[in-house]
User: Fold these one by one.
Assistant:
Number 1:
Amino acid sequence: MIENACRMCGRLLDQPSDPLSPDCGGDCWGCIGEIEAVGGYNPSLRAVRAEIAAGIRKPIADLPDDGGLDDDDWDDGS
Ligand SMILES: [Zn+2]
């Protein structure tokens, strides 16, 4: 078990050479960004779409055009 790795995909976290590796609470942005984007959180959706356009991220089949959720609408459980 690698300590500093995403719990979902095993990617090493916080690697300067990997734009999808920022640590999002134990999981990488690559995983979290996709979940949030597919879940309809617009800020993540915009970021993920830009990453796909830039070739950083693999295309996601079921990405919504507009998630319908902005910052104020997101229920983060708090
Ligand atoms: Zn991951």
Number 2:
Amino acid sequence: MNEEHSQEDAVTVTGLRYAFDRTGTAVDGLDLTVRSGEVFGLLGPNGAGKTTAIRCVTTLLPVPAGMVRVFGHDVTTDRMAVRRLLGYVPQQLSADGGLTGRENVALFARVFDVPRRERADRVAQALQAVGLAEAADRMASTYSGGMVRRLELAQALVSAPRLLILDEPTIGLDPIARTGVWDHIMAIRAASGMTVLVTTHYMDEADQYCDRVALMHQGRVRALGTPRGLTDDLRARLGGDATPTLEDVFRDVAGSGLDDQGKGGEFRDVRRTRRTASRVG
Ligand SMILES: Nc1ncnc2c1ncn2[C@@H]1O[C@H](COP(=O)(O)OP(=O)(O)O)[C@@H](O)[C@H]1O
Ligand SMILES: [Mg+2]
């Protein structure tokens, strides 16, 4: 990696649009820059377009050239280079309950071309980094929800990506498991200096762990900044002794549309996640 590259932004998204069909546009003119080394949160209620945007960045959805770059590589014209640079934990379950933790991670090591001689060590290191060294040789079907999520984190880490992309890493987990997942993400990031792009609809997590956040609603970024900067701005506008949270900032920029969309969606998503979890467990 040369000097020029290390200064480069991790992700640049310019005017990204994505429509699944003629009736709806999931991402509608998205502009976004993730700086190298930061933890960047893409926040928004269910249906905001977070997963669609993430899948464009990971090369899983086709986009016109020039809209999305990862460390300077265009996701459309330089797809394999982009794939080598990133680790991805999808929103939906990606671990196989019929394999052990170690076998699951080894599978990803093979798929991502980790050199054969290094594989066993790298798999063990990834499992260690997420606190699964002890449980590594148990079937994933015996893992708790939080352990499954940490296993998926190990899968994404085994290729030593420069950019780790996590889509709702803590959805459907209890508060203790959520903290466990975040503690591991932050420790790995501190040790490796990797860039983290994470989506979540839990505003409190974003407030606590993200350097900068983008608030996304109906396919677009409505506000962007540090959690502190965004809440301070709203406090200044409200005056008095208001102590707004990120959620209040969101309500302020998204208006009333947020309530209807957020709640129903959240329950649907949690149910879906639990169904998937019980299939594994
Ligand atoms: N495979 C799909 N086919 C059709 N519409 C989709 C598909 N995936 C997502 N959508 C729609 O695109 C919009 C954005 O969804 P998504 O990107 O999953 O949002 P989020 O991740 O923020 O919850 C929603 O209106 C959703 O219904
Ligand atoms: Mg999503």
